[in-house]
């Protein structure tokens, strides 16, 4: 059987392989999206380069004063205009294209990670539901025993109909929970099929370890993206300021003109033009707006870092809670182990009923499943740390 591994350390190279988890259409979409980003960069970085234009005309003059038709004329020309100095504007234009590429690639990587995270969390949810179904079966066995005992006690006149009815309802509720869990499992398996054609048992997930706070903040994908936006907006601000400074443009043209009664004419020219805006009523407001956008984005990054610090502490608190749950469950398991050992001895001596031992053994199993389910809950918290860090771009 083919098995694919979801690795605990995420980087671009590994994601190139992990995208194989996706359905073919989704995988193709991710590749096309990246190609679009790269083509966008190739176009943007060369936008400052001038274009060569071809011009042609065909015409005939008519003199209304003398009612005389003029000569047929034809012309063909090539022109080229190139900005050769923009007070840093050309460099900022190229730099802006680079910053946009970086920002777009980080966003693309984040989207990849979101898809892998969705698969990972769905796999954990499926595993958890399977454990809960098995656990619920043992609970149902106990409910069956409790109902049998209540019926015996009712027939012996030791309990009233209310207690027997409560036992019946308790069993019914447990059966309903079983059905609900199985339906939830089908829904999660369907959800997984939206992302990948692989079955849950064909994908192996490796446990994560704790991510330290410094790494969580430093390599956080959202922070990396927002920082790239700061760089992009800052470059845009510098580029805008350069448009109000001197600019030098090289213009060239070559023309060919043919007239019926004149000699053909071939002309050409090369000129250097210097221009600079001396008045624009919107200049100050435009520049100030662009500057404020940079400032706002920097504040946004700091605000996000503060929120992430709180989120990190919140996740760790929840993980610690699951660690405490594990200790409690382990203590319960030790207690049930002692009770089962004692009950087995008394049962062998005919001092206790078989039902008592079976209830204890089933309850022990239920607690063992609690231990495994608790571990999955802890893994789900780890995903909130790992799938938000590290994009090697």
Describe the structure.
- The protein is an alpha+beta fold and 393 residues long.
- The chain folds into 2 domains: 19-45 and 87-244 and 287-388, Outer membrane efflux proteins (OEP) (Up-down Bundle), CATH 1.20.1600; 52-85 and 248-279.
- Helix content is 65%, strand content 15%.
- It contains 8 helices and 6 strands, in the order E-H-H-E-E-H-H-E-H-H-E-E-H-H.
- The chain has helices at residues 12-18, 24-44, 89-155, 161-195, 213-218, 221-242, 283-348, 354-386, and strands at 4-6, 52-63, 68-85, 203-205, 247-259, 265-275.
- The strands form 2 sheets. It has a 4-stranded antiparallel sheet with strand order 2-3-5-6, with no helix packed on it. It has a two-stranded parallel sheet with strand order 1-4.
- A hairpin with a 4-residue loop joins strand 2 and strand 3.
- Helix 7 (283-348) packs antiparallel against helix 8.
- The longest helix is centred in the N-terminal third of the chain and has 67 residues, at 89-155.
- The protein starts with a strand and ends in a 7-residue tail after the last helix.
- Residues 8-16 have low confidence and may be disordered.
CATH topology of the largest domain: Outer membrane efflux proteins (OEP)
User: What is the correct CATH architecture of the largest domain?
Assistant: Up-down Bundle
Helix content: 55-70%
Mean pLDDT: 85
Number of helices: 8
Radius of gyration: 37 Å
Number of strands: 6
In whole angstroms, the N-to-C terminal distance is 34 Å
CATH-defined superfamily of the largest domain? Outer membrane efflux proteins (OEP)
Pfam families: OEP
Family: Belongs to the outer membrane factor (OMF) (TC 1.B.17) family.
GO molecular function, one term: efflux transmembrane transporter activity
Organism: Arcobacter cloacae
């Amino acid at each position: 059987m083919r098995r694919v591994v979801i690795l605990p350390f995420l980087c671009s190279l590994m994601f190139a392989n992990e995208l194989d988890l996706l359905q073919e259409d989704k995988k193709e979409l991710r590749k096309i999206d990246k190609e679009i980003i790269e083509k966008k960069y190739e176009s943007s970085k060369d936008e400052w380069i001038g274009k060569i234009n071809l011009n042609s005309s065909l015409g005939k003059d008519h003199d209304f004063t003398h009612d005389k038709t003029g000569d047929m004329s034809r012309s063909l020309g090539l022109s080229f205009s190139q900005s050769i100095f923009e007070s840093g504007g050309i460099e900022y234009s190229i730099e802006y294209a680079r910053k946009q590429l970086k920002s777009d690639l980080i966003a693309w990587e984040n989207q990849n990670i979101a898809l892998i995270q969705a698969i990972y969390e769905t796999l954990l949810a499926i595993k958890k539901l399977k454990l809960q179904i098995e656990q619920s079966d043992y609970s149902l066995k106990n409910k069956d025993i409790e109902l049998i005992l209540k019926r015996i006690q009712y027939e012996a006149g030791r309990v009233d109909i209310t207690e027997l009815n409560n036992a019946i309802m308790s069993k019914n509720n447990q059966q309903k929970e079983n059905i609900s869990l199985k339906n939830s499992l089908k829904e999660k398996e369907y959800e997984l099929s939206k992302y990948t054609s692989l079955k849950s048992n064909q994908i192996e997930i490796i446990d994560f370890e704790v991510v330290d706070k410094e790494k969580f903040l430093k390599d956080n994908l959202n922070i990396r993206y927002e920082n790239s936006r700061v760089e992009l907006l800052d470059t845009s601000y510098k580029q805008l300021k350069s448009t109000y400074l001197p600019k030098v443009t090289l213009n060239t043209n070559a023309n060919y003109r043919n007239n019926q009664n004149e000699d053909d004419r071939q002309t050409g020219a090369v000129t250097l033009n210097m221009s600079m805006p001396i008045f624009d009523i919107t200049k100050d407001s435009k520049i100030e707006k662009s500057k404020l956008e940079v400032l706002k984005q920097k504040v946004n990054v700091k605000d996000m870092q503060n929120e992430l610090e709180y989120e990190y502490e919140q996740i760790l608190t929840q993980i610690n809670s699951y660690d405490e749950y594990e200790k409690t469950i382990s203590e319960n398991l030790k207690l049930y182990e002692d009770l089962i050992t004692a009950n087995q001895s008394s049962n062998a001596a005919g001092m206790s009923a078989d039902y008592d031992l079976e209830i204890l053994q089933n309850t022990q199993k239920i607690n063992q499943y609690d231990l495994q389910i608790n571990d999955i809950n802890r893994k789900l918290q780890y995903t909130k740390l790992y799938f938000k860090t590290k994009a090697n771009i």
